[in-house]
Amino acid sequence: MALNKAKIFTITSVKGGVGKTTTTLNLAGIYSKLGKKVLILDLDFYSGDIAASLNVNYDIDIYNLFEDLNNNKFSNLDNYVINYHDNISLIAAPKDPRFARKISSKILEVILYKSSMKYDIILIDTNHILTDINLFALDYSDEIIYIINNDSMNLKNMKTMISILNNMNKTNYKVILNESNIKGKNYYNKYDIKNIINKNVNYIIPSSFYIKNIDKYIIDGKILTLDKNIYTKNKAAMKIYNLIASDLLKESKVD
Q: Do 61 and 43 form a contact (C-beta atoms < 8 A)?
């Protein structure tokens, strides 16, 4: 379901530690290079890493927005948006995870309505738990991107999730196999994975994109796809990210 202008893409998973947040940030970098205005919405309320990964300081997060909305103090979405780059902004998850359960899904409709008139792309980063607000995000998404890796439990959980998606009559989702976040773990090949999860893997982020010193980039608050050195040395992975970004735009066009 598209709202006004922005395309809404939710990046999620069925298990932590698969590179979901990194993938979200890398897609943001690609879209920004294409001249798109991007808003990243961090809905991982218990362990949101977007703001920390970008090394930004902030005093206002999505919980403050929710409180102001409930108390009729909300006036302008920009008051809750953190600017990271000329084309990339974000709304941070709660600093205090104890506030997570207090935020209801109604806030998402307000954010998406307001932001869809100002941005070209909205990237929603979620956790792997099917909370009300995460289900709401899936319903509002033009496309849903599931990140998996070469892990037996991850693949079993993905098989279950695909059954759930089928029961919900959802077909607007893609599966990305991330081979870059765990070096050397490639027990299952693409065809094995297809047979396990009963779904094609749409894209593979190659193991060659494993960044040995990735912690340095996180400490510096850098997006890998915006780093000239990383971009130049990882042509295969950059080609995949550009393909994903392009395909998502094409497939979410409204006739």
A: no
Tell me the residue type at 220. D
Per-residue pLDDT of the chain (255 residues; tens, 9 = 90+): 444 589 999 999 999 889 999 999 999 999 999 999 999 999 999 888 899 999 998 999 999 999 999 999 999 999 999 999 999 999 999 999 899 989 999 899 999 999 998 999 999 999 888 889 999 999 999 999 999 999 999 999 999 999 999 998 999 999 999 999 877 777 888 899 999 999 999 999 999 999 988 888 988 999 999 999 999 999 999 999 999 999 999 876 543
Question: d(Cα 146, Cα 236) in Å, to the nearest integer?
Answer: 20
CA distance 70 to 166: 35
> Would you list the DSSP string of 200-233?
---EEE-GGG--TTHHHHHHTT--GGG-HHHHHH
Candidates 122, 125, 143; CA nearest to 134 is 125
Residue in 86, 60, 90, 89 with CA at minimum distance from that of residue 75: 60
Type of residue at 232: T
DSSP state for residue 128 in the 8-state scheme? S
**C-alpha closest to that of 239 among 190, 203, 186:** 203
Q: Which long-range contacts (CB under 8 A, 24 or more apart) does 242-249 make?
A: 242/30, 243/203, 244/27, 244/30, 244/145, 244/174, 244/176, 244/203, 245/27, 245/30, 245/31, 245/34, 247/174, 248/7, 248/9, 248/142, 248/143, 248/145, 248/174, 249/7
Could you give the angle at the alpha carbon of 153 between the alpha carbons of 147 and 154, nearest 5°?
5
Distance CA 86, CA 84 (A): 7
Query: Residue 94 half-sphere exposure, CB side, CA atoms within 13 Å?
Result: 16
